[in-house]
Design brief:
Elements: E1 5-9, H1 12-19, H2 33-36, E2 41-49, E3 52-63, E4 70-74, H3 87-100, E5 103-108, E6 113-117, H4 119-127, E7 141-142, H5 144-155, E8 159-161, E9 174-179, H6 185-191, H7 194-205, E10 209-212, H8 218-232, H9 239-252, E11 257-264, E12 267-277, E13 280-288, H10 297-311, E14 316-321, H11 333-340, E15 345-349, E16 352-356, H12 359-371
InterPro entries: Acyl_CoA_acyltransferase, FEMABX, PG_Glycine_Bridge_Synth
Pfam families: FemAB
Family: Belongs to the FemABX family.
Length: 372
């Protein structure tokens, strides 16, 4: 007979110890991420079958103004066995625990894939004027676990958040990943398109160097990032945010976060923030200068991060979010082509889901966020 499943508060040390027994987890589910997201109240919780720990989560709480009730957010989590036959019990145990803590809604982002599109399929979709979005192109792989999770969430009353919904989803539903498991550097290079391989050779010929920096290099990264933000018209985060992220993640594990800089004759051409948890490596933030673009600093830095991911035993190199578009006219198509050149795949995740625990407060919060 199965032991009952319960959820209870755990310490950051217990949380981290459990994560270290797992192949990988999102960096948004590490205890250290609580120190990055200071504007949220955070707690670590664990799932137990009897006395055996079978899951963990970082829960971020955002309170309603003047009311001691919160939205409980589990970004890119929780870290549970999503293929478990006891999934309903696992999710209900979390719901009950957070309801007792005064949460008016639960938001989760199951870290499971539902669909995958390979490079040949993506190229064909871009070339086809009848296809505008990934979800209009036939996927190469439909993942049974992810598909089952989505169906189960719908049955349990969870509401799928699309970017068009009120207080929209915070984490990307579509990402681009380069599979690394069982591959060598030569395999990864062979999987790239001709332009990528040619540009990697060009960076070596032109004397572009890539180095791993430290906290003292964050201002140089940030200057490049602010220049990129002005060019691409997005609002940049402040330097203090990256300093806090670097300090928190590196204190938890010295191998967790890195700053990379691609340089040429003393000039920074590109700079990135790289994060790794177990077998999952992320290109988290990236920036490049307009000067010396022909030297391909961005290509050099990506290739170095992929090489280091392979050397660290990572099974996936994650280029994070992409928009759900393969439309030639879309302004993001250049970035999509750049990522497609790596020979990776577009991956649709289960996305973010809300479970209202108090429908009146949930509706009030939705209206509050829409007005902001």
């Amino acid at each position: 007979m199965n032991s009952p499943i319960s959820v209870r508060d755990i310490s950051a040390a217990e949380h981290l110890a459990w994560l270290r027994t797992q192949p990988s987890a999102s960096f948004l589910q590490t205890p250290a991420w609580a120190d990055v997201k200071k504007e949220w109240r955070a707690e670590s919780v664990g799932w137990f079958e009897g006395e055996q720990m079978v899951g963990a989560a970082l829960v971020l709480h955002r309170s309603l103004p003047r009311i001691k009730r919160s939205l409980a957010y589990v970004p890119e989590g929780p870290c549970i066995d999503w293929s478990s036959p006891r999934l309903v019990e696992l999710l209900r145990a979390l719901r009950d625990h957070l309801t007792s803590k005064g949460a008016f809604a639960l938001r989760i982002g199951p870290p499971v894939a539902t669909h995958r599109w390979g490079t040949a399929t993506i190229k064909a979709a871009i070339a086809d004027p009848a296809v505008r979005r990934y979800d209009e192109a036939t996927p190469d792989v439909v993942e049974p676990v992810g598909t089952a999770v989505v169906a189960q969430l719908e049955r349990l009353g969870f509401k799928h958040l699309s970017p068009d919904d009120g207080f929209a989803a915070g984490q990307p539903e579509y990402v681009f990943q380069v599979p690394l498991a069982g591959r060598t550097e030569a395999d990864v290079l062979a999987g790239m398109n001709q332009l990528w391989r040619r540009n990697i050779k060009k960076t070596l010929k032109n004397g572009v160097t890539v180095r791993v920096g430290d906290a003292s290099d964050l201002p140089a990264f940030h200057r490049t990032y602010v220049e990129t933000a002005e060019r691409d018209r997005f609002t940049p985060r402040g330097l203090a945010y990256f300093e806090q992220m670097y300090a928190a993640l590196s204190a938890e594990d010295p191998e967790r976060i890195r700053v990379y800089l691609a340089e040429h004759e003393g000039d920074v051409l590109a700079a990135t923030v790289f994060i790794r948890v177990g077998e999952h490596a992320w290109y988290s933030y990236g920036a490049s200068t307009a000067a010396k673009r022909e030297l391909q600093g961005s290509t050099a830095i990506q290739w170095r991060m992929m090489q280091d991911s392979l050397a660290a035993g990572a099974s996936v190199y994650d280029l994070r979010g992409i928009t759900n578009t393969v439309d030639e006219a879309n302004p993001h198509i250049g970035l999509i082509r750049f990522k497609v050149g790596t020979g990776g795949e577009a991956v649709r995740l289960a996305g973010e889901w809300d479970l209202p625990l108090n429908r009146l407060l949930y509706k009030a919060f939705d209206l509050y966020m829409k007005r902001r």
